[in-house]
Design a protein that fits this description.
about 300 residues; mainly beta; four-stranded antiparallel sheet; 3 helices
């Protein structure tokens, strides 16, 4: 019996009826989007969107947090981040990612939301960057109180938005869920790169690309990774929770032609911001906002090359 199978066998007696056997599930309440999986100091960390006191989605989302040494047995910790009354995330800590900063310190990047009707949560953004949504989205961050704690039990928020406002005059219908796709030194890159889920109102989804020399400052819009303009009724008007990760290289005869494993991916177009991916295959995934989709389809996962984007 392997070490992994022994861990599984040991875990089985603790399984409770009517609960997942090995998938992460909080003791109670609502769970959705997994966020920021991270391996740090001998522990696997999984964060997730969570409503502790309800089994129905609502504003007030926190980041649930669980840790494991073997990806089988999980220990639930206090929520990593919770809404701050009067703050940029007063009405919810939406999705994002986790990474290690330039000094190896774990850092959570997430979208904080405050309801437009919440007068205690600060002024509205300038007209040219106000998306006119029921809530205002801001890009927020948090770091562990004690980086020497391998479980990263307690977190403290950065007091400023590391990316203050969405691009002006784009007609966007959302601006959320940052995801780091490269860091300085990776493949010769001298900067950080990330993507953010978005969409052009009444037109189609888009994924925006930003770059910066520093993780928590200086971010500049670099363009669009891909978009679905004119296809919103079939591919969604808002593309949430974008994920992009590199895959092993394809055989040359396949890479030359481009590969797409989902028919709708062929409708998405790319800007010059994606050209540096060349023919390297990537996995690209989005979650389509349910209230902006007409066809009833929800989530897309693509296996793509740059030419397919």
């Amino acid at each position: 019996m392997t070490a992994g199978s022994q861990s599984v066998a040991k875990a089985r007696p603790a399984i409770k009826q009517d609960r997942p056997s090995f998938h992460i599930a909080p003791p109670k309440g609502w769970l959705n989007d997994p966020n920021g999986p991270l391996f740090y100091a001998g522990y696997y960390h999984m964060f997730y969107q969570h409503i502790p006191e309800s089994c129905i989605w609502s504003f007030g989302l926190v980041w649930g947090h669980a840790v494991s040494r073997d990806l089988v047995t999980w220990e639930h910790l206090p929520p990593a981040i919770v809404p701050t009354p009067g703050g940029l995330d007063a009405d919810g800590c939406f999705s994002g990612c986790a990474t290690l900063d330039e000094h190896g310190v774990p850092t959570i990047l997430y979208t904080g939301v405050r309801l437009r009707s919440n007068g205690a949560a600060g002024p509205l953004p300038p007209v040219e960057t106000d998306l006119q949504l029921p809530f205002i989205e801001s890009q927020c961050a948090a770091r562990p109180v004690d980086p020497s704690d391998p479980k990263l039990t307690h977190w403290t928020k950065i007091e400023y938005p590391w990316m203050a406002l969405p691009p002006a005059h784009w007609g966007l219908g959302g601006w959320r869920d940052p995801y780091i796709i490269s860091r300085p030194g990776a493949d010769g890159s001298g900067c950080w790169s990330l993507i953010i889920g978005s969409g052009v109102k009444d037109n189609g989804g888009t994924v925006l690309v930003y770059k910066s020399k520093e993780l928590l400052d200086g971010w500049q819009l670099h363009g669009e990774l891909c978009h679905g303009r004119g296809e919103g009724s079939t591919t969604g008007f808002i593309w949430e929770c974008p994920l992009l990760t590199k895959l092993p290289a394809l055989p040359a005869h396949i890479a030359r032609g481009g590969v797409v494993s989902h028919g709708n991916a062929s409708r998405a177009s790319t800007s010059e911001s994606g050209d540096d991916m060349a023919d390297t295959p990537h996995f690209f995934c989005i979650s389509v906002s349910a209230d902006t989709l007409c066809s009833g389809q929800m989530d897309y996962g693509y296996r793509i090359t740059n030419r397919a984007l």
